[in-house]
Specification:
The chain is built from eleven helices and 14 strands. By secondary structure, it is an alpha/beta fold. The radius of gyration is 22 Å and the shape is globular.
């Protein structure tokens, strides 16, 4: 819509979207959900089970059993595999047998190297930003990453390790995703379940300083907040969404901090900032990068190289074939070499 407004003013042909929000809503009628470990038959001769991938709430490893000519072949597709010991969700399910494995390789060439504990790093960055007198802006994926951040910030506040600051979750999708978390506690790990039982289900994600921002007007109003705020907004790679407005109003301020908590793909705005760009273009305007730029790798929902190899090592017999997918070229090649 924004591009078409500009094109209209120029007298140029308007763009036609390849799909609309209504199309997206209608496609949901074609989805059917299944519980973990519940076998179902999507087509004759094919049986499927979903197992917990430990990546985000509801993410799944897919076990597929195909019967052909009296023989059963088992294919396992990893989906996105999660880190172990993540907040809220369980660790990835161990699979020990398959003929063919299709495995993601996002971090096939990297470890989540942390010079300091994830919570310690988060506390340090929040306290530093507060003392500088600016805002902490966090580009974050709406599902899982945002909920992990709320969980950990609340934990630090409860421990008295950070000052009370206003926390703004500026993403309608993140608000809706948080409702999904609240409504599905049966998928939490033991720590989150115990916390929920002690303090109530909403205690994990709600509090007097946690503000869920829904309307565009409320989001725009945050542009006038100059200090003392933690703003968590999508998209996680800073390439679209409300986060671009918050970066536009904070990147050039040396008293503010931008914290990345997830993978930044090549070519994205987030990757450019992380790679040390001195200026970036946002909404057609050049913005100087003066804010402190921080990254905490431990919030990545993807298993790193060690996590991927550990998951593969659980197979008691070697699969006949392993296909690597979903990774940049160096990640694919490095992981291929190590598996070979």
């Amino acid at each position: 819509e924004r591009k078409n407004r500009k094109l209209k003013r120029k007298g140029e042909p308007l763009l036609t979207p390849i799909y609309t929000a209504d199309d997206a809503r209608r496609c949901l009628d074609y989805f059917q959900g299944y519980d973990y470990a519940a076998e179902f038959e999507p087509a004759p001769g094919i049986k499927v089970l979903f197992q917990d991938a430990g990546h985000i709430l509801g993410s799944a490893i897919t076990e597929i059993f195909i019967e052909e000519n009296g023989k059963t072949t088992k294919i396992v597709y990893s989906g996105d595999l999660g880190n172990v010991d993540q907040p809220i969700i369980e660790d990835p399910t161990i699979i020990d047998a398959a003929d063919v494995v299709i495995m993601e390789s996002t971090y096939g060439n990297r470890y989540h190297l942390e010079a300091e504990n994830k919570l310690d790093a988060l506390a340090r960055i929040i306290n530093k930003t507060k003392s500088k007198g600016g805002n902490l802006v966090i580009p974050s994926f709406a599902v899982e990453r945002t909920q992990d951040l709320i969980y950990d910030i609340k934990k630090l506040q409860d421990q008295g390790r950070i000052p009370e600051m206003e926390i703004y979750i500026d993403s309608p999708m993140a608000v809706e995703a948080t409702k999904v978390f609240i409504n599905n506690p049966e998928y939490y790990d033991q720590e989150a379940r115990e916390l929920m039982q002690s303090n109530g289900i909403n205690s994990i994600f709600e509090g007097p300083k946690i503000n869920f921002v829904l309307t565009a007007e409320e989001s725009v109003a945050l542009n006038s907040v100059k200090s003392g705020a933690i703003i968590i907004s999508a998209s996680g790679m800073a390439d679209a969404g409300r986060i671009k407005h918050h970066l536009k109003h904070n990147l050039w301020r040396k008293e503010s901090t931008v914290l990345f908590v997830g993978y930044q793909a090549e070519g994205t705005l987030g990757r450019k900032i992380l790679d040390g760009a001195k200026k970036v273009r946002i909404h057609g305007e050049e913005i100087a990068v003066k804010a402190d730029i921080e990254i905490i790798d431990g919030y990545s929902a993807h298993a790193d190289q060690k996590g991927l190899l550990d998951w593969l090592h659980n197979y008691k017999t070697k699969p006949e074939k392993v296909f690597l997918v979903h990774g940049e070229e160096d990640a694919l090649n490095t992981l291929q070499r190590l598996i070979t």
